[in-house]
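input
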Amino acid sequence: MTLASKITVGRLFLVPVFAVLAIYYGQSIREGHPKEWLRWSALAVFVTASASDGIDGWIARRFNQRSRFGAIIDPIADKSLLLTALITLTLVDWGKDGWCIPLWFSALVIVRDFIILGGSALIHFVNHDMHVRPRWTGKVCTVTQMFALGWVMLKVVPFDPIYPCLIAAVFTVWSCVHYLQDGLKQLHDSTHPRTGGNP
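output
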């Protein structure tokens, strides 16, 4: 296993650590005695895991450590971190008056991921191949989702988390539409191949 893959696996192991810290912090909130060291520990684990995503990618490119295992485990680790944080911060209040991620936003993100996953499986089944073209909306979608999570965890802004979630929701839907358009185009091209050259 390459160093890049080891870092990716390490990120995967940090996911349950974050979840446990986040849940226990929420429990301390409910008991009326917030243990801020739990919140900061959860935030530190989340930031470390998020940063490792860029580090393992850089190492893989810089030292030519790309591997099939890394290509499979990296997106799994990324989605595990994001969805675990999203679900945990939806079900566990991190402050008074429901300071958490709105349920509708978590549902939207999960539905989007299922649509993309199902569409990818369909394209691969029909075409026996699939080309994923990175879109700027997909990158902005991830950034705004992370921003919404950070908004809840930092608790430094006196505005309800619904506002960053609304912004992230726009790009979540927008990126889903773009991926659907790309998928439909690939399906169309496979069933209507272009003919070229002289007869």
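quick obs: The chain has a mean pLDDT of 86.
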